[in-house]
Amino acid sequence: MSKEELLDRLRREIESCRRCDLWKTRRKPVLGEGPADAEIMLVGLGPGRQEDLQGRPFVGAAGKFLDQLLSEAGLRREDVYITNVMKCFLPENRATGEQVEACAPYLDRQIEIIEPRLIIALGNLAVAYLFGKFGLKVEPMERIHGKLYKFSTLTRSGHIIPMYHPASALRNPSLRGRLVEDWRMLKPILVKLGLRRENA
Ligand code: URA
Q: Which pLDDT belongs to residue 200?
């Protein structure tokens, strides 16, 4: 089966998922979008209201800011695969440990299918989940944001970069400059990893 077919199968699965209570309040589950063989994957928290209505990730206010951040790094939305730890609308904008446990296997499968070389973890939940999964030590975001970490599993290795969640700068404008700077600094990192050409 191709990567696209495997992702389609996953999409159908989450459409009928009832592993936790969030199916009761969601409209459209959000699997993610982007090339099935993307080298760079972005992982956020979970769908907000706009995402729930449209069934697409990061299409609300945080998504607009994310588009700007991507361009600071010389990336376009269509170059990357964008998803979340949680696939259903989070009415209180946070997930319980049980909900994460129920939903994260979908993200695990997306990572297995897409095999990204770089994962950008947006915000605390994505960092906590992915660092835990790869056996990395979770530290406060102030200390680790924008830094490059290496991960390896039994079959492959790659890199992960923790970033502040774009919505955190909408709530706390003093973080905005730091986020923009982190994404600007991502540009040379992408060149170093061979994920972007110097002047592209
Ligand atoms: N916030 C997220 O974490 N993910 C989305 O898809 C939208 C907003």
A: 60
Fold of 3-192: Uracil-DNA Glycosylase, subunit E (3.40.470)
Question: Can you give the residue ranges of every domain in the chain?
Answer: 3-192
**How does DSSP assign 1-46, residue by residue?**
--HHHHHHHHHHHHHT--SSGGGGT-SS----BS-TT-SEEEEES-
| Cβ 41 vs Cβ 119: under 8 Å | yes
Distance 178 CA to ligand 1 centre (A): 19
Q: Phi then psi for 81, rounded to 5 degrees?
A: -100, 125
Query: Using a 6 Å CB cutoff, which residues line ligand 1?
Result: 44-48, 51, 57-58, 60, 62-63, 84, 167
pTM higher than the cut 0.70: yes
Phi first, then psi, for residue 37 (nearest 5°) are -115, 30
Q: What is the pLDDT of residues 5-57, one digit of tens each?
A: 999 999 999 999 999 999 999 999 999 999 999 999 999 999 999 999 999 99
**Distances from the Cα of 139 to the Cαs of 65, 122, 131, 142, 144, in angstroms?**
25, 14, 10, 8, 7
Q: Whose CA is nearest to atom 7 of ligand 1?
A: 58
Question: For the chain, which residues score pLDDT lower than 50?
Answer: none
